[in-house]
Write a structure and sequence with these properties.
Elements lengths: L2 H18 L5 H14 L5 H5 L5 H19 L1 H11 L4 H16 L4 H18 L5 H15 L7 H12 L11 H17 L11 H7 L5 E6 L21 E8 L2 E3 L13 E6 L1 H7 L5 E3 L16 E7 L15 H5 L1 E8 L2 E2 L14 E6 L3 H5 L5 E6 L10 H19 L5 H14 L5 H7 L2 H20 L1 H13 L4 H18 L2 H19 L3 H13 L9 H5 L8 H27 L1
Antiparallel strand pairs: 1-4, 1-5, 2-3, 2-4, 6-9, 6-10, 7-8, 7-9
Amino acid sequence: MTLEMMFVLILLLAMFTALVFEVARPDMVIFSVLVILLLSGILTVEEALKGFSNAGMLTIALLFIVAGVIQKSGLIHQMMEKWLRNSRTSAGAMIRFFVPTSVLSAFLNNTPIVVTLTPIIKKWCEDRGIAPSKFLIPLSYATILGGMITLMGTSTNLVIHGLLLDLGMKGFSLFTLAAVGIPVTFIGLLYLCTIGYKLLPDNQSFSQRWKEEPKEYIAEMKVTQAFGKLGKRVKQAGLRDLKGLYLIEIIRGNERISPVRSTTVIQIGDRLIFTGLMSTIADLQKMKGLELETGTNIDLDDLKDGTTSLVEAVVSDQSFLLSKTIKQSTFRSRYDAGVIAVHRNNERIKSKVGDIVLKPGDTLLLLAGPDFVAQYRRSNDFFVVSALDTPEALKQSTKKGWFSIIMLLVMIGTVTLGWLDMFKAMALTVLVFLVAKIITPQEAKKYIHFHVLLLIASSFGIGAAMRKTGLAEWTADVLLDIGKPFGLLVMLFMIYLLTNLFTELVTNSTAAVMMLPIGIEMAQSLQVDPTGIAVVIAVAASASFVTPIGYQTNLIVYGPGGYTFMDYVRAGLPLSLIVMLTSVFIIYHLWF
């Protein structure tokens, strides 16, 4: 091993460590590694920037816009609501829900699909007294499975396609992966509808817990000069024996008084932290001199006249809010909404609301104005935004909605018939959307997930460094030495397992970009079709079922479903094994 190879290997290990321990956002970690490779001279400027002009990466950017237009139409929302209306049982609803969801995911980016459908399925569950936690992880898994069917089904497939083109190979056709993706999706959905959902917890939804378990929530009230009980003890001030309400902490400057004793004296400026019934808190704010701290100038009384609403929002992995306390993020002025409660892993965070440092997947209960849902539904700061009482449907002309769906079908047809390649077809579709004023350039910009593109483009440079220094060839030789005595089938399982481990620990695109050079070197040494190896890596990189961090859709449903990390392991590990066994055996017989 040369010094350059050792340097790149150390950088990769440091990158993995930073990603696993969430030192910074994944795109910033990988971009930092790319900059180091550039400054060290291992990569030239052209090599470092090659990923930013890669056809696969640019196709993903266009796919975000197309998916955003379809989501904006609201037709999927309406059709799924009508489709589910006649479902009476959980098993029947799963089949009716997840089969079309998987089909949609084969042709649209699965992130907006999950964002759009999560509120629908939650409401359907709540109306029938069914735990949404039985449906939301399967929703994510169904979109992941469906994404394996076509080239455009997931960014991973497009990334590998772009890499193959860069290496002078043919790349994938639109349905190259269908031979594997269709049977894998069928078997995976069969597992989810028969065994998988039984392994998931029976958690109530966030809104149901809001109504039925109010002691899970906290509120903060500030004592002002007008409070008539200043200088009185807690009990004398009438704050000890409140119906459905409990004073758990008093914050006085830098001092925290907890537990609160009956003899504690109330002073001006005290911040009183209560847990209990929000209806009681609403009554308590009528007490002169106590002000509810929601982080905004609206209060609970406004709920009665409809000027405000209770809103549920899930923090995204690219949110401005990450790694800041709610107070530091100036939540009030930025969103004109107040955070009433924060849930993480189905548990209330025992801290002053303003001091909570937010993480991806946290579920916020907000007191917000009537326009909040419409304004921030597509914000990069939140995955899912929905009012707890009357979720606002997306509004757009039905004609424009059907036109956008027809354009998508036409695009698929032109690619299938070979008239245009994927990038040209996507570019033409987006151009038509802009000319027909289905979307504005400003909207198109909002639909693009720039952090995902930065991550993918930077990953291309890291893959180039692995090839250029010989690290990919060296790693391939090590794997060949281990697996060659056991035959090609065992080596395919090794490649799959290593790729799948990377995708669970870091991200699917990074795993694909790192493993493909290794896989191509192995294919050349074994003198076998590299397309088969590429398909193994594509499926393994997408099959992220065991952790909430490996795939974005898993993170989206993390908070709304009230899941823990082990819920993903319990339901996802059997599915991961099923997908691995099915896909590897099919690939082995079709390509080798």
